[in-house]
Amino acid sequence: FHVFVLLSFFPNYLHRFLMVVLSRILNDKANKWTNFLAVLVVGGGVLSTIASADMDDIFFMIMQCAALAVL
After folding, report:
1. Which residues, at least 6 apart from 55, have a Cβ–Cβ distance to it below 8 Å?
2. Where would I find the H helices in 1-54?
3. Which residues contact 31 (CB under 8 A, 6 or more apart)?
4. d(C-alpha 25, C-alpha 11), whole Å
């Protein structure tokens, strides 16, 4: 029950929670493809907000996209 309550209050962390759970369940090949798709989805979400971003937001977007590229 507490996991669902936590996820309802923090929907932005849902993909992180799912990636941790899926990394424990899936085999290596499926896990690599899942990570690749997660990078595309999260990166697309980050880049979709660039039109209304300030300079500090753009800096953090660049850092987050760089961290996703390492993943």
Report:
1. none
2. 2-9, 14-25, 28-47
3. 22, 23
4. 22
**Other beta carbons less than 10 A from residue 61's beta carbon:** 16
Segment holding 53, helix H or strand E: none
Closest CA to 60 of 50, 70, 51: 50
Within 10 angstroms of residue 12's Cβ, the number of other Cβ atoms is: 7
pTM over 0.85: no
Residues in the chain: 71
In this prediction, residues 5-32 reach a mean pLDDT of 75
Residues 31, 54: Cα–Cα separation, whole Å: 35
E strands, the chain, in order: none
